Amino acid sequence: MIQLEHVHKRYGTKLAVEDLNLTIAPGELFAFLGPNGAGKTTTIKLLCGLLFPTAGRVMIGGYDMRTQGDLARPLLSYVPDLPYLYEKLTGREFLRFIAEMYGIPDATARERISQVIESFSLEAFVDDLTERYSHGMRQRTVFASALVHNPKVLIVDEPTVGLDPYSVRKLKDELRRLANAGTTVFLSSHSLDVVEELADRVAIINHGKLIGCGTIDELRNKARVDGSLEDLFLTLTLPQPEDQLAPTSEGLRP
Amino acid sequence: MNTTVDQAQLFRRLRWHLLVNTITELRGGSMVRPLTIVLSSLLVWAFVFAVSYSGLRFMIEEAKIPPDEGIVGLIIGLMFFTLGVALTFSTGLILNGSLFSGPETAFLLAQPLTADRVFAYKFQTAVAFSSWAFLLLGGPVLIAYGIVASAPWWFYAMMPFYFLGFLLVPSSIGGVVALLLVNFIPNQRRTFLAVLVLFGLALGAWWIWGLITEGRRAGQPEEAAAAILNRFSFARSLWLPTAWVTKGLQSAGRGHLGDALFQLTLVWSNGLMLYLLVTWMSTFLYRRGYNRCATGGDLRRKHGGVWIDNILLACLCFVHPSTRQLILKDFRTFRRDPQQWGQVLLFTILLLAYFTNLKRLFIRGLEWPFQNWLSFLNLLAVSLLLCTYTGRFIYPLLSLEGRKFWILGLLPLERDRILWGKFGFSTVGGLLVAVPMVLWSDVMLAMPWEAIVLHALAVFAMTTGLSGLSVGLGACMPNFKETDPSKIAVGFGGTVNLVIGLFYLILVLLFVVGPYHGMMTLVATSDQSPTPFFWLIVALGVALGLLTAIIAVVWPLRDGIRSLRRMEF
């Protein structure tokens, strides 16, 4: 469902993403980790078609994001780390706007909107202007809007920031349910406990290069690290002597 | 792509919801702000109408110049030409800011929307923002023309259509330039701006040179007037849309419906063609441009200019350290945004070039009364520049703190200091630009020392007063949700500030230098020396002007400080 082929992305003289190769299957919950400035957000923007690769190809649902972006975008939903809402719309009006944008028929839209309002417990504030929402309320509303059209691919950047424990629990359940139902979830997060609990596979990126990709057990074995995902992450991303770990385009070479 | 979605209707509905909710919010809140805006707009409208009506009436009824004569058309043509150039720049700059950055743009571009639809939505918003001053100024001039020329009723009915059709032309050109810039020279946009400034400067200098030399070559005043008018005739070139608008409106004024409709069709067909061109270009250049703009430069750019900051800090050594740091912060923000100061720089250089050439080109042929009023007009030009500077850059300063206001709010300093810092930044910056300009103009015109002192006093009063107004009103009517300073400046509060600033400017000029220039003309024409009574009136005027300046500083700043103290974040 998601395919990145030898993707490079350059900002001026700085290479933000270098020879990135990923293939993510339908229904997979894929976590994308990396330290600050590693290239996660750039990769996410490449997946959404906001940026184009300097070299290589990004495919969503078999469509090339550069040349067939208009066909690929209806398949995906993107929840950024800083959610955007129109301040002078109510939450319900915003959901309605999104439903119309995806061409959902009226009756279905009403039904779907009611469902997502219930799923993300928006009832108490959904008819208020979004300018009055707290960060958590905004985040939940944007999540709800991302799911209104049943996307084939869901890309989420730092989804748990600003959410209370109850909302985090509901969000995790929802992400798992979506993946089980066939939606490909691409999750970028610094909350390693969430990733450890949810992810089918994990990729770790550092300095623009993929330094590991696989299930958490596979990564542990390759890096010869026992312990939590946090230990594994720190081992892989802390500066290492060159002879211990050599990143390749396929993943980690122990 | 879901082809069943009518994306244009989707955006229309979005705008409708946003409008209805905004009006509902306004109705629920205090009516003081919207009423102030409406009243201020009406005042500007009435002022422009009165000036235009009396001017046109004098020309048509007193000077017996028929309304369909070239000179009247020239005035309308020049108005549209000037507003059109301003609109091209402002739309281009707003589009440059809003098309390629901002959370809404990223949100829309990640949705299943075609690039041209997103572009059209952003374009229409930019045009609405940059053009309502155009309507506010152009409307009363044309209504005055219609009344004086006894135009038929359908002249007034056609006016909005001429305006709308014409708006498409400069706005689309601004859009084309913005698209081309980010796609082909995303890293050299600053260089391009600098080249544009130099080009504008050269063009302006060449035009002014021609204007003055032609005026001087002519023997009789009538010939000089004809030569000067001829210099302005470019605004009526058949290739310019301004000529079609002018010709069409004059035909409508005369009751020639056929020609008026023909010119209107010409304006609309060209406007729509340019709009189609820019939206067509956006289908393949918009997303590409967004990508180029976002990734064209290095991720981490080193910012220099430390020496300028050090000079500023040294100049402000007498100010409280925390206020000094606040001024430095505002200065850094300002100097790192050439889009903001490029326009003021252009006008400043043009004015300086004009002042420099005054002596060589004008002075030998000028008698004292003209020299006297020319120096007044130069002071007026500098004052308008100051008013633009404070309205465009100083008024939005507090609003731009936006959601980061908590940083300032939590600082261990009195909130009053934040406003005093901005006031200091504005006053020092304004004085550094305006005082040398006015002094230079007066030296070039060989004005007497008392005129130079009065002009310097007027500039001081204007800079402090306009700074006080912009900083104070900016704190009273902040717009923390908007991140684009140009939108804050042309928004509700920004317009109120601009209008009050213009009235203040007129008052200061009337009080501080009005009596001097007026009475010097009388003295010169009656061949008498200035009497002690004359100087008493001048002194009284200065005192009144300075009192007005004190009020303009104290009143808004006091209210602004109160508002800032109450502000929650």
Description:
- The complex is a heterodimer of chains A (254) and B (569).
- Chain A contains nine helices and twelve strands.
- Chain A is of the alpha/beta class.
- Chain A has one domain: 3-Layer(aba) Sandwich (Rossmann fold), CATH 3.40.50.300.
- In chain A, strands 6-7-8-3-9-10 form a six-stranded mixed sheet, with helices on both faces.
- In chain A, helix 3 crosses helix 4 and helix 4 crosses helix 5.
- The longest helix of chain A is centred in the C-terminal third of the chain and has 16 residues.
- Chain A is globular.
- Chain B has 569 residues and is mainly alpha-helical.
- Chain B has two domains: 260 residues, no CATH class; 252 residues, no CATH class.
- In chain B, helix 14 packs antiparallel against helix 17 and helix 18 packs parallel to helix 21.
- The longest helix of chain B has 39 residues.
- The model of chain B has no long low-confidence stretch (mean pLDDT 80).
- The chains are: A alpha/beta (254), B mainly alpha (569).
- Chains A and B meet through strand 1, helix 2 and helix 3 of A and helix 1, helix 4 and helix 10 of B.
Largest sheet of chain A: 6 strands, mixed
Strand-pairing-aware structural class of chain A = alpha/beta
Order of helices and strands of chain B: HHHHHHHHHHHHHHHHHHHHH
Number of domains of chain A: 1
CATH homologous superfamily of chain A?
P-loop containing nucleotide triphosphate hydrolases
Give the number of helices of chain B. Answer: 21
Give the overall form of chain B. Answer: globular
- Which series of helices and strands of chain A comes N to C? EEEHEEHEHHHEHEHEEHHEE
CATH class assignment of chain A? Alpha Beta
> Over all CA atoms, what is the radius of gyration of chain B?
25 Å
Average pLDDT of chain A, to the nearest integer?
A: 86
CATH topology term of chain A: Rossmann fold
